[in-house]
Please model this.
Amino acid sequence: MPLEVLLTNSPWMMGLNAAEQNKVRNDIVIKKMPTDAFICRRGQLADYWYGVVSGVVKINNVSPNGKSTTLLGVAPGSWFGEGSLLKDEPRRYDAVTIRDSELALMPKATFIWLLDNSIFFNRFLISQLNKRLGQFIGAMENERLLDVDARVARSLAAMFDDWYPKQTMMLKISQEEVGQLAGLSRQRVNSAFKVLEERGLIRVCYGEIHILDIGKLSTFDSSSLDD
Model:
């Protein structure tokens, strides 16, 4: 089942004992959502921790004058939303599907119960929060210092964790959707894809992007002859 695949590939699940794993499976709710659906909205109370079973999610904010910015893209296999649960505060962002998606919703009570009972789960959350901090610092650096090709490369790489199974490092995502995540036009994303394919970092098929070298993709800089 898709949920079991998500849980099997979730590193925090491996460190739970049998009773804790059973509670997680019993408490999680699966929700299917269409494209452009709001998973949660800015200002709402944080009731769930979210896992992406399938599809793609963007963490997004809109200014009072209507200007939208994407802060992060979330690929299948990833979890998000722990910060608001830990701080017990309303969401500070919107989470929106950019294609038909399936989400695993862990209730806040279960999340807090794991926090109180599992040292392994706590260690995972520390690592996850550190990763998020690195992503946001990197996004600021990318926008200010890197060219468009590098921004596309690092936007793709940021959606995958180091532990993600190599045989499934693939995104079902269009060039237009990547443009939403990177803040670029579809035409400019297409040009960047050609550069990245020539470097052997990705392979683009219809509606799919296969990641061939996550390490080089995450550090790609077109000004460097070593990439």
About this structure: The chain has two domains: 2-135, 147-218. The two ends are 39 Å apart (CA to CA).
